[in-house]
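Technical note accompanying the year-one report. For the benefit of new consortium partners, we illustrate the data format agreed upon in the data management plan: each record pairs a sequence with a structure-token string. No post-processing was applied to the example shown here.
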Amino acid sequence: MSKVQPESKCPCGSQNPYPSCCGRWHAGAVAPTAEALMRSRYSAFVLRNEPYLLASWHPSTRPESVSFEPDCVWLGLKVVEAKVLGADQAEVEFIARYRVGGGSAARLHERSRFVRDADHWRYLDGAQPG
């Protein structure tokens, strides 16, 4: 797992220091919204934090492991829309930019579904919009 310096800005793009942004969710605090969880999952991909990704995935769709592309560099995150669909359901549409090796930049555009079980939001699944 990669490390972030305490004074560094959070990888999620919030412009807040990592410890007071996604770092607190990675350290065990409960993300209060689906959008906060989605941002923290993006940061976990940037930092290659497999334990957090697996813990934040709903058990019904969680894989056994998360593989990381060794030459992948995450370039940025844009939240397009975050919608609460009910007390325990939400969607977050986002665009994440990345580059693999020396190749061209690419985009992952996804509408992710989240559910809340107990007091924890969990990533359920995602699909490309349209």
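Partners are asked to follow this layout when depositing records. The domain at 18-127 is CATH 3.10.450.50 (Nuclear Transport Factor 2; Chain: A,).
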